[in-house]
Amino acid sequence: MDVYDSKDYRYARDWMKETLRLLDEEGHSSTVDLSDVYDHLSFAEYKLGNLKRAAHYTRLMLQNDPTHARAQRNVAYFEELIRTEPEKYINQDDERGEEGEGETAESRESMTQYERYQSLCRGPWPLPKEYDSELTCFYYDNHRTPSLVIRPVKVEVVFHKPRIFMLRGILSEREMDRLKELAGPILKRATAKNADSGKDEPAHYRISKSGWLSSKHDPLGYVDRIDRRIEDFTGLTMSTAEQLQVVNYGIGGHYEPHYDFGTDEASFTDGKDRNRIATVLFYLSDVELGGATVFPIVGARIQPFKGDAAFWWNLKKSGEGDMLTRHAGCPVLVGTKWVCNKWIHEGGQEFRRRCGLTPNEESYGHSL
């Protein structure tokens, strides 16, 4: 088992739990050794610091094979550790129970960022009451931009800080079909920047296929039309933006927590275009189960709806990266997920999004 041998114990635990579920469905017809599954699960939980769960799976192992000498020793060992040094060995996972059972606002505060990501992928968190007045809907024509006067954008503010906007019904069915049609033949395994080498390489934390589209790919002009629409509702120039990236996530496809902007001097800062100032994320399909976009630091969650787009600023008005925008694409559990993103750069935006009077100044009101 690759994830076990590579010491990726979180994924090893998840695969073992799925094995148990399948064994339960198949009854006794499987040739898989149940004790072996419990053994792997117990060790994974032990390595993750979850002593109560490790002891639980070891007891189940003994129920299946009462003469297993190592399991007998391990149960005694786990119970002694729990009794004598509980504060050292009992992980927060033990106290929350399986799959986030019994989560509270207080327990979420103590989660690691990866645990927050997993919890949000399981379902949304309730938003604080004080956010109610900030979460609004409005029609937006970006200061009477001609193309938006007759058909303004339907905007919903879905999170307060960072400000996350949903642009409802921003793409037509024909436009979405065209993007998928163009991208299909050029999709390749998606890559991520290697922090050590500086090169774009396949990564275990990003499982998807992607392709880049420019106007040269589309004689019918759909790509240009979408670029113009982005420029109209954001007010930002597309001359320094990256090409449209179409991404397909199959079953299990995901992208673990990351920033869109460069977090060090070497990333995206060479040359005139500089860093990624904003992200537009179009949803080209509904997802039957899974596939949400989550922001684990702040607890925000966006469920994909076909034709909608999410927009957020990666950089503050000062040009400093907004660390609250760390986000992730949750694993697709049923169905498939198609998205298209546009990364907009700082270059050329100097008079379109001006610096604020203070380093942390943000935009509010009925505007992006």
UniProtKB/TrEMBL annotation:
Domain of life: Eukaryota
GO CC annotations on file: endoplasmic reticulum
InterPro entries: Oxoglu/Fe-dep_dioxygenase_dom, P4HA-like, Pro_4_hyd_alph, Pro_4_hyd_alph_FE2OG_OXY, TPR-like_helical_dom_sf, TPR_P4H
Ranges where the record places region Disordered: 88-111
Gene3D superfamilies attached to this UniProt entry: q2cbj1_9rhob like domain, Tetratricopeptide repeat domain
Biased composition (Acidic residues): 95-104
GO molecular function per UniProt: iron ion binding; L-ascorbic acid binding; procollagen-proline 4-dioxygenase activity
Domain Fe2OG dioxygenase: 240-346
Keywords: Dioxygenase, Endoplasmic reticulum, Glycoprotein, Iron, Metal-binding, Oxidoreductase, Vitamin C
Cofactor(s) needed: L-ascorbate
Protein name: Prolyl 4-hydroxylase subunit alpha-1
Organism from which the protein derives: Geodia barretti (Barrett's horny sponge)
